[in-house]
Amino acid sequence: MDSTEAKVPPLLLAVLISLSVGGLMSSDINLPGLAQTAHALGTSVSAVQATFSPYLVGLLVAQLLYGPWSDALGRRRLVIGGFSLYAVASLACALSPNIAVFAAARLLQALGAGAGLVLARAIVGDLYGQQTAARVFTTIMPVVGASPAISPLMGGYLTTLLSWRSPFFLTALIALATVVAVVLRVPESLPPERRARRLRTTVGNYRHLLVSAKFWGFGLNLGMGYAVYTGYLVASPVIFQRLGMSTELNGYCYISIAAAYIAGNLLSRRLVARHSIDRLLVRGHLIFSSGALVLLALGLTDPQTPWPLLVLMTAVTIGNGFLFPMSVAGGVTSFSAMAGAASGLLGAVQMAGGSFSSLLVSRIPPDVRSFSILVAVFAFTGLIAFHSLRAFAARPTTGSGAVQEAPAAPVTSATPNED
């Protein structure tokens, strides 16, 4: 039985937050300095914008690689290696003499930072059972949720006061501090006796996860939730501009979304001590789909003001604040024998949902009506899939071809073994 009173060492929690935030913070922190970066590198703003594509590809690929790799080699050495690469690549971004070097450094930065995204989840899955893992994730994810609002603001001040290079020096410093903390004070969370003997075995774990209804019951929550979130980030600037909102006011709108996500995290954190993860996911879907339904009803009236979209997306995002931490906790602890692979594939499904949504947003009319339909499709697809897969996974398994999920990780608050 899990214990929600298991203590998480403060330094470990700080490291997990740094690992979880690093990759996402680095994607946004230099946004205010695009023009200065282009001028310094002798290129166009669009050329600098184009470097975001290899960065996102790097994050997706990194999660698929580090997950099974860590199941065979352990987490600690890959955290040290990945975040060391992240630190060096951040310095390379800051010192780039031209756009070609900058683009290559951005790709390497993502490949290093991506280690944090997948390994933080895997470490929590190694150490804690579902309830405690959910409590840890609902502590980490408010910081993750705030990063889209805080990172550009921080980057803007650094760029204005110092230069466009300073945000990259900051990410290098944070990455280096994380590596030092792990080297000196954070032990290995996956002892040798629990590791896969061959890397080929851990890569093969993806096959088991891909045919598991339980895994997809968690994974699609992340994919659909991130699809709505990313779609809003991509679509809202154009929609708000068409509805008369100034660029300055538009920037503040993302603060409300970050606040709503944090509120959902904190509320679910209070409830996880008394309710199961599945029950909280049901509540999250109820909030998520209810907000989407009301948004659809108003969107079909073709409103001429941005406020209905802003208010209702805030409500939808509270639902996401439930879905994200509970789905990650359920996904990695339900497959504790392959937590790295599960964490990597969860991250890939999440990124795929965001990429697919971004593509769809670019093909639909930039208005509230079209966007509300898109949100409703994602929300109700996620709701139906969750309940269907949950019911399917609960059925008794029969036959030799049935996939058996690994049992949840045993509950422990003990310090993991040193590598």
Strand content: under 5%
The assigned structural class equals: mainly alpha
The geometry reads as globular
Ends distance = 27 Å
Largest sheet: none
Number of strands: 0
Would you list the SSEs in sequence order as H and E? HHHHHHHHHHHHHHH
Number of helices: 15
Radius of gyration: 21 Å
| Low-pLDDT ranges | 399-419
The whole-number mean of residue pLDDT values reads 83
Helix content class? over 70%
Report on this structure.
- There is one protein chain.
- The chain has helices at residues 10-28, 34-41, 45-49, 52-73, 76-94, 99-127, 130-161, 166-185, 199-210, 213-242, 247-271, 277-299, 307-333, 339-361, 368-394.
- It contains 15 helices and no strands.
Brief summary:
77% of the residues lie in helices and 0% in strands. It has helices spanning 10-28, 34-41, 45-49, 52-73, 76-94, 99-127, 130-161, 166-185, 199-210, 213-242, 247-271, 277-299, 307-333, 339-361, 368-394.
Secondary-structure map with pairings?
Elements lengths: L9 H19 L5 H8 L3 H5 L2 H22 L2 H19 L4 H29 L2 H32 L4 H20 L13 H12 L2 H30 L4 H25 L5 H23 L7 H27 L5 H23 L6 H27 L25
Which terms would index this structure?
mainly alpha; globular; 419 residues; 15 helices
